[in-house]
């Protein structure tokens, strides 16, 4: 799990009042080549960032059905879905949509921006609005 840090390492946060926060979560190398899953906590947001077949996704790390961490769940690279390790429900990493019962409520998704080798995630100022 990665916590916010002020030294430019994973979790470094900057704030823009209009856009919310931009958080550095790691490097492309860590996510794509090394296959790491990085969890970053920003305020009340716990964000899972991971790569599937070279594409980087960021979603809420907590299952909307069973309040369990998704970073330990299996990922299907063909469907780009993550499976909750508790009840085997599934979510789309692309849209956040709940794709298999018992999960029904979608996951929050976050915008991922790649700047060179740096991966950042935008956390909105208005937490009631979904980010896709």
Main traits of this protein?
single chain; 132 residues; mainly beta; 4-stranded antiparallel sheet; 1 helix; disordered N terminus
Q: Distance between termini?
A: 23 Å
Radius of gyration, in angstroms, nearest whole number: 14 Å
Structural class: mainly beta
How would you describe the shape?
globular
Biggest sheet, spatial arrangement of strands: 1-2-11-10
**Biggest pleated-sheet summary:** 4 strands, antiparallel
Helical amount among residues, as a percent range?
Answer: under 10%
N-to-C series of helices and strands:
EEHEEEEEEEEE
Average pLDDT, rounded to a whole number, is 83
Instruction: Indicate the low-confidence ranges by residue numbers.
Output: 1-18, 128-132
Q: Estimate what percentage of residues fall within beta strands.
A: 35-45%
Number of E-type strands: 11
Number of helices: 1
Descriptive notes:
With 132 residues, this protein is mainly beta. It contains 1 helix and 11 strands; from the N terminus they run E-E-H-E-E-E-E-E-E-E-E-E. A 4-stranded antiparallel β-sheet has the order 1-2-11-10. Strands 6-7-8-9 form a 4-stranded antiparallel β-sheet, with no helix packed on it. A 3-stranded antiparallel β-sheet has the order 3-4-5. The longest helix is centred in the first third of the chain and has 6 residues. The radius of gyration is 14 Å and the shape is globular.
């Amino acid at each position: 799990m990665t916590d916010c840090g002020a030294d430019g390492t994973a979790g470094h946060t900057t704030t823009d009042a209009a856009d919310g926060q931009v958080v550095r979560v790691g490097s492309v190398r860590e996510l794509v080549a090394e296959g790491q899953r990085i969890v970053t906590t920003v305020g009340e947001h716990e964000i899972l960032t991971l790569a599937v077949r070279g594409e980087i996704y960021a979603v809420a790390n907590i299952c909307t059905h069973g309040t369990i961490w998704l970073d330990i769940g299996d990922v299907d690279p063909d469907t780009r879905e993550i499976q909750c390790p508790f009840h085997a429900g599934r979510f789309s990493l692309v849209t956040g949509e709940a794709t298999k019962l018992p999960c029904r409520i979608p996951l929050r998704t976050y915008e991922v921006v790649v700047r060179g080798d740096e991966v950042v995630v935008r956390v909105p100022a208005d937490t009631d609005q979904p980010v896709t």
